[in-house]
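Lab meeting prep.
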Amino acid sequence: MFSHKSPFTQNARELDLCYTYRVNNDQQIWQVWHETLQQWRLDDLTALILDALGPLNLLGAQVVYFSQPFLGKVLPEGHWDALANVLENPAQTKAFSTFLRQTDQSI
């Protein structure tokens, strides 16, 4: 009997690692955003706007994707992608909004 590793299993593991890295990286970026928004006292307003805009956040994500080549150096590396991800994915939007509110209450 021979052992055969499926390429699908290997690819799934690589995707899990990429996803885990992205989630951890996004959480670090979210923390930076929260600190900045809190300094400007915009954390609650940002959470409110994200919740209120709902489906319009998808348009915001498209604007972010479109403007990345022009505004790429305004934010540190990875921040534009994280912002587009938050706006594009309703689950991420809700998670970030909740993150803003929970962190605000714990401080």
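Slide two material, second protein:
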Amino acid sequence: MNAELARNRRLEALSKRKADRVLVQPRRYASEMNPPEEGTISAWLIGALIHGVTSQEIEEKTGWSRSTALVNLYQVAKRAGVGIRRQSEKLHIILPEGAERSSSKARVVNPDRKAGNIRMLHESERVVAV
């Protein structure tokens, strides 16, 4: 009985793994948001979330592995105070209550740039076109 229950729970968890759900909860109020600085990788990631992006697109444009891309995305969202919702394989931003939909800081870097044209400086996390 215990083995069958454990098996059913594993199967249920696997079915939810790719289901539509909230991956990161946003902060409660817009006043608690901390938007990233202009020109940073963080700002580019937030901009990508605003437009809706898949994890594969982030991997291709940054050159990061899947795990690195997702960890960085989750950390940026937590730091900025926004949430992430997965819907039909695309990741979308969830803003806190009272926040405006458009943000000039989130659209700093052109999301259509290739990974080879963007590099990150470790000290300041500034995006530099090569």
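Talking points for slide two:
Residues 120 and 127 are 5 Å apart (CA to CA).
The chain has one domain: 20-129.
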